[in-house]
Amino acid sequence: METAPKPGKNVPPKKNKLKTKKKPRRYWEDVATPTAAGTSPEPPPNKKRKREVRPERPKNTRIPKKSWNSKKRQVQRKSREHRNPAPQGTLSGAQDPFPGPAPIPVEAARKFRRIDKSKKFPDCKPQTQSRLEVAEAEEEVVSVKAARSELLLAEEPGFLEGEDGEDTAKIRQADIVEAVDIASAAKHFDLNLRQFGPYRLNYSRTGRHLTLGGRRGHVAALDWITKKLMCEINVMEAVRDIRFLHSEALLAVAQNRWLHIYDNQGIELHCIRRCDRITRLEFLPFHFLLATASETGFLTYLDVSVGKIVTALNARAGRLDVMTQNPYNAVIHLGHSNGTVSLWSPAMKEPLVKILCHRGGVRSVAVDSTGTYMATSGLDHQIKIFDLRGTFQPLSTRTLPQGAGHLAFSQRGLLAAGMGDVINIWAGQGKASPPSLEQPYLTHHLSGNVHGLQFCPFEDVLGVGHSGGFTSMLVPGAAEPNFDGLESNPYRSKKQRQEWEVKALLEKVPAELICLDPRALAEVDVISLEQQKKERIERLGYDPKAKVPFQPKPKQKGRSSTASLVKRKRKVMDEEHRDKVRQNLKQQQRQQQKQDKDKPTGARPSALDRFVR
Amino acid sequence: MSATRASKSLLALSQQEELEDLPKEDDDDPLNTSEDEGNSDGERKHQKFLEAIVSLDGKNRRKLAERSEASLKVSEFNVSSEGSGEKLVLSDLLGPGKASSSLSSVKKQLNRVKAKKTVELPLHKEEIARIHREVAFNKTSQTLSKWDPIVVKNRQAEQLVFPLNKEPAAFAPIEHTLSGWKARTPLEQEVFNLLNKNKQPVTDPLLTPMEKASLKAMSLEEAKMRRAELQRARALQSYYEAKARREKKIKSKKYHKVLKKEKAKKTLKDFEVLQKVDPAAALEELEKIETARMMERMSLKHQNSGKWAKSKAIMAKYDLEARQAMQEQLAKNKELTQKLQATSESEEEKGNSEEEGEVLVPDVVNEIQMNGDGPNPWMLRSRPSDTRKIEVQKEPEHLPEPVANEASESEEEERPVAGEEETLLKEFEERRQLRKKSELSQDAEPANIRETKDSSSQEMLSELKSLSQKLSRADQQPRKQKVRSVGPGPQGQREEPAEEEEEPMLFQRPERVQTIEEVEELGRDESLQPMELPSHVPEGQPLERNTSDQPSTPKGKKRKEPMIDLQSLLTAKSSSVKSLAIPTAVQEDEEERAQKQMINEAFAGDDVIQEFLKEKRVAVEASKPKAVDLTLPGWGEWGGVGLKPSARKRRRFLIRAPKGPPRKDRSLPNVIINEERNIHAAAHQVQVLPYPFTHHHQYERTIQTPIGSTWNTQRAFQKLTTPKVVTKPGHIIKPIKAEDVGYRSSSRSDLSVVQRNPPKRLTSHHKEQLKKNSAH
Fold first, then answer.
1. WD repeats at which positions (chain A) (predicted)?
2. Nearest residue of A to residue B590 by CA position?
3. The pTM is what?
4. Does 2.130.10.10 match the CATH number of domain A169-501?
5. How far is residue A613's CA from residue B389's CA, in Å, rounded to a whole number?
6. Which pLDDT value is given to residue A248?
7. Is there a contact between B673 and A353 if contact means CB atoms under 8 Å apart?
8. Domain residue ranges of chain A, discontinuous segments joined by +
9. Residue B775 and residue B763: Cα distance in Å, rounded?
10. What interface predicted TM-score (ipTM) does this complex get?
11. Shortest CB distance from A393 goes to which of B579, B664, B668?
């Protein structure tokens, strides 16, 4: 259950998308860092900062070059792809210079590959071989199709580029707003709500709706792009956290005592008393689970589709007030006061993994959208980025003047940290790399201390809830530019939403499937397989699949004497033994080679080394 | 009854009389005719009449002997010679008097009857039925086997569509449809005119006249000739190939030797001729030979390293011939590797070095000389220094040497056949390894310590400062002490806690390179784990328990995956950010406060680490498989309060649990990974291996690609989820017929016939048998 947006089928072009810094670049060129100043080939414009809104058309200088490139590539490929040599004669006898479908570069298709072909199964039956071949061919076809449909991802991520040597962190919001188009500029706004104190916020999954919950009971939901207020109420109780459920029509509010659920009109639908003193909320959209972390130290999973509590897990680590979800595998990460972060799934009573991250308590945790990196900040003023792919080791560490109280990852891997009244945003090199903590990508000052932080999906916007209200700031290149129209469509109508809801409910993933490596579900359960085999052997009294010991066939004319039988038997046995020995030797050699490879060669071996004795 | 019989006999009698009369009459006949010719005609007629009458009776129809003497002049006085114009030939007399006796056929029958032996018993009914069945089975399986490819194809097909008889997709090619089409409107005509002008095809649009002409360019005869030529060439080639193959297969060494010699002679001759005729070319040739020699020098040929050479090396001990062959090889190698210009010098050098070697370390050199006949001068020169080095190393490497020797000895015992060369090589290898090892260990240690020093010097904390001081002290401590601490047996174990305080950092560095022997002596590796951090561990009981409880894991593994030091992991100094926007609240006395807090947190943190390590230890313990103790106290010995079953009993009845797989977090100090199995998720996993797969990895590969529309494009999704069988609703699905798959319809009828009365066609053997049976 990967939640990464799929490549194909995003249909409608997005009009209001914020394209802050668009150059005529293409997404495959995104290796060039947006921050890399001075790398731009164009002469600097007379403006002080080059912060152009993406023009209607890409600049001319690039187009011919690009088209030439692509054409050349195609020609080269053609010669290779000349698999169907039968030229398709047209009526006039002229031939298509580029017959067949357009070729797909191998790298593009590799991204969608799932079978690791390096592992071979040399000695399998022909039937098995044919099945494997079919599977591999299928996978290839599918991946090529997926790569081909990448063409439909028309939108490109925005970026911010300083002039030569200019630090992008120095660029202020006002400058950005000044440079971008009006529609995008309208996405930067401040809500001055000093009365009801620091705000928590949540964007809906489509990125269209925003809900705000003030500590002093103020709850509001709005379509933030059109600024249309859907509801505004005061629950007359402290609001600790607020979260949209699967759609923008329902929102869960963690109030002082219990968990309440409201609809978008502000009508209270449920009061869930089994979840009390909730501090943090997380919603797992594919499982329809609302995970709640309470002051009493319980992590409770509430299935919102049937309204039942799936499990309540006791974390045994005191008050829980740091929680986030891993969008890749729906595992809940909890931060504890003893510096550990624990990973939970509703199927297990114990944490899947416990990681000691900080010497002090953990203040905030965030996981990026691919589930590869986890950022933590602790009381020791450090911010660390961990690798979640099996090793759980810190990749980079940074000490901040003041510890970050809130962390958030954007869809494209930007990391925002709220420290006091300052927001720092770090960007990584390229797409799938962790944010480098060397240099902030953007910084921003707020009018109050940060209390909630979230990047808006599919918009280059970071929403910040603070004691002075709410700030929506522009962060070019934060969000995924292409959305999946069938999955989370910001422009969907009510009807579409309802249909999506039904579909999503039909495809609901059972809660017990949440595990650390979701790919493991596609593996055979070896333990029970072995168990069944053992049971079968016990039942039958013999192993039906065991190799039958060699029994020499009786031969005629006196050749079937006992001695010769024994001899024949012995021969077979010896042959088997020899095979075994041969295999052993091979294995040993392989190990030896491996060891030799592993041995670090200090300096480069010189040719004269052979004479040194 | 009697009356009829009498009448019959009478009739017969009368007939007989008549018959008897006839010849008589015949005898008289010629006389009569001679007497009166006038009556003769009448008489003959009468006779014929009589005959006709006689022949009326069907029973006694007999062919009457007819006189057919042609001569009219028959006289009693002389023999007429008329009609005897032909002479009698002698050969006529030789033939048998009678053409063939009518008895021969009877004889034959008699013989046949005589030749027949006793008749075999007919087979049992069951036997016959069995034979019939067998024949039928063979026949049927033969007929059915032709369906096998179809069955296989259908099984492997991605999709089967029923009913089978599908309409042939008869799409006429567009050219055909267009051929009947005529340009009518002026525009069309114009276009066609243009096309015609350029000789573009209009009616048969695929080929222009030019192309057609070019296609026809090759005439039939030409093609035939060419084909014949090609055939001849191919045939010749195959002959030559066959010949070459045959010659190649010849195993006679003598033959090859002769062949080789001949070749060499021939080339030499050629070369001489070439020298006389064209000296330049000869020079070139010479150069070629030289380059070949150089190439050989560079290559590993004739180095006695090949497969053949190795096998010979093994045999050399016993086989004189093999030894000679090896020596030859070596000589060749020497010859090749010698530098041409400085031959004399190198020889001198060689001699010198040999002498030197003998003087310095006689035994080694002698050994080598004994074994290798053609010593490489390079090797010789380097050997003395080598041995010296070894001697130097022998002191620190005291332990490893005997072990290695032992190993080699044991190997020798195992394979007494191994040649001297091999052992020599092995020795060299061992020495090289030992030297490397020692060098490594010498190098690595200071480097490591330097590293730790670096990291620790960066540390601001006072606590760690003290640690680093200890470390530096430890640095100065000689190596021996370390070895002692690592210590022999259980005594060391007791001492450990005390020692740990002394040199904690040493224990934190498991990646420090140690010789294998030291490690093996260690036995227990707990002391090397970074868990045993010095500061707050309660000494004595709990620690001891821990160390003793944890079974020793193999040392080699530990070294392979260096444990990352937890302390350093958490306290690693990270460069602080000089943020542009510093939070307003912090701006004033940032530095001071940070310092204070850092120290506070550092002291708080130690506790955190300890707690975590303790937790991890507990988790590791809990996850270990438990041994089952089945001892019954008091069973077979005295029981009672305070009495323990004997150690032997306990050992006997303790079922040790198999060692589980290594923990995933064994080299990750800051992580506890739960190894428990998620049974809820496992319930959703595949638990059986479907048929053609023998290993779960194979099956997993086929289910790795997700088929849902969430992960695939629409087309791919449709392709992945196509149904295996598609049926047309409302249609009868008939069984597959031969016509459906392109066979002739006969196959089906064949099959049906065979099934109805199986033993129609039999093999010859069965036929014979059946005939035999049916004969009786």
1. 355-389
2. A401
3. 0.57
4. yes
5. 9
6. 93
7. yes
8. 169-501
9. 18
10. 0.78
11. B668
